[in-house]
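Need tokens for this chain, all 479 residues.
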Amino acid sequence: MSYTIEKIREFLNHGFFRIILLMLCDGACVIGCTFISSIFFKFFFAYGEDWTLRAALPFAITLLLCNTLFSCYNGSILYPGAGVNKIEEIRRLAGSVCIAHILILLWYVFFPQTEEMQIPAIVSSMILTMILLPITRGLVRRVMKFLQIGQTRILIAGAGKGGAQIAFEFSQDSYFGFKVVGFLDDDTQKHNQMLSGYPVLGGLAEAQEIAKKYKTSYLVCCIPVPALSKFYRQFTLYFKHIMIVPATQIFPIAWVTPVSIGVFSGFEIKNKLLQPFSRLLKMVVEIVLSAVALVGLLPLFLILVPLIKFTSPGPVFYPALRLGQNGKKIKVWKFRTMYEDADEKLEQLLSSDPALRAQWEKDFKLQDDPRITPIGRFLRKTSLDELPQFWNVLNGTMAIIGPRPIVEKEVKAYGKHYLLRERVKPGITGLWQVSGRNDVDYALRVMLDTYYIMNWSVWMDYYIFFKTVYIVLMRKGAR
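Here are the structure tokens for all 479 residues:
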């Protein structure tokens, strides 16, 4: 009996079980979207017939086949690994959903069914599935993380700073589904010590024995190249998956393609920043979205304007001076959230309190800032103070999504990365805002801004946009 329970527990903690749950999620999502679309057109337009499960099932089967072909299940169904990054998965899922629905549409054209063909409902299902599929997958992954099921056990080679950071990322992340069992390192002084909450289990030469003991066949290498060269062949004799993490944290890995040149291995980097069509597409989409947003938010503006005006003296809007593209100074428009004499108060606070000065010099922000008005505190907490920045997008000085706007004093903090940073427009929201906002330190903010620029794509903007909606609704990291 105990043997059977152990086998069940082992299966539930295997990466293959994770694939099964993701497949069930995908099938349920597309079937749900199909029913919702059918009911919508039937109820509001009296068009078509109510679809049965039998009619919706082909959508699920076709999507699962397309997702498998697009490698949307941790790389391989039988031998699941890390798979692709979050942004690439969104791109592949979008392509898979489109192809699946086109195939279903062609099936209805050439082989009419008993139900009336509903082309608008099929198109609606496609759009709805593209939006909801990444969201439902994210929810299922969070549940798996919480229940500790479908998690691939991994070892990390290298108990240094890089290995510790990778272990921390995996412990916080639900996307990859990795469960760290411990570290390997040749420094004997680290053996049996704890690092990021995980034990250092032994040396690199003991990798195979330790992996067998802890029932894992996945190794993440965070070790210098000479050590990797020495042990690589030994690692490949046992581990089914080996992930090699470069020392640099902002390497543009999202757009790297492996290249084989004879017996040599290399990689090609696609510089999205230099592709005019992609940048033009981003600009056009954001201008349209901003125009729609300003019209749609007009009733909210009519409520907020008198609230700000009558609760504290001063103008409703505040033009914050920031650095824009190519280092040009721009006015970033916000709803005023501070008292009129905020600048004078800041100087008084910083001169009288060394602790506050240190905090300001570190983050260029103050916790529990006394300069903020009561309504301003609410506006900041809900991020409503930033809504006027859609006007900045329309006048071409900002983007909806991009690196956060910075003041001139912050250029020094960016160092050599500022030359890259000034090539793009600042954004209303961005990668650092959806990665913890004010809960991350300044060095990480700089790194996230730089990573965004080096790995930018329309699909990354798609991810950040919907993650921003979630962050704002959950009110995470805002002050």
